[in-house]
Design brief:
mainly beta, six-stranded parallel β-sheet, about 150 residues, about 25% strand, single chain, 12 strands
Length: about 150
């Protein structure tokens, strides 16, 4: 068991700008139900996104910053459905491939989305336009194509 999983009441985790190694998907986020803030920016984490339980909503998680690592797993379609209270997400400057899932429109409280400088392909999902709280949207430096959805134009 990961040592962090024993911190059952943990609500704030900031380990940014270190040299932490390991795989992000092994982080025990699904075991930490009170966790609201996670900042692991600028480390040496690899692999896919942290595992969340696709059958439950991590209602406490508000801030997730995994930017500037070496993450190279796709964003699963169900992933945003498991983060109902999420307001801030940054996966910038990683190696995340695949398409942006349409479920990105589910956490209706999102105000900051930074998926820049990854290996994302496909089109921008129209569901992004359903996020009425978004103030910051950065998708630069990917391989996105198609038309800009009318919902955000």
């Amino acid at each position: 068991m990961h040592a962090l999983a024993q911190l059952r009441k943990l609500s704030y985790l900031n380990l940014n700008h270190n040299y932490l190694r390991g795989t992000a998907e092994d982080l025990p986020l699904k075991a930490l139900e009170h966790l609201r803030y996670v900042n692991l920016r600028h480390n040496l984490l690899e692999g896919g996104l942290p595992r969340l339980n696709p059958n439950t909503t991590h209602s406490a998680l508000v801030h997730l910053d995994l930017a500037e690592n070496r993450l190279d797993g796709e964003i699963p379609e169900w992933w945003f459905n498991s983060t109902g209270s999420l307001r801030y997400i940054s996966l910038a400057n990683n190696l995340v491939p695949g398409e942006i899932p349409t479920s990105i429109g589910f956490p209706s409280k999102l105000y900051h989305i930074d998926l820049s400088t990854n290996k994302l392909t496909g089109t921008i999902p129209r569901t992004i336009g359903e996020l009425s709280e978004v103030r910051y949207l950065n998708l630069k430096g990917n391989g996105l194509g198609g038309e800009i959805p009318e919902s955000i134009a």
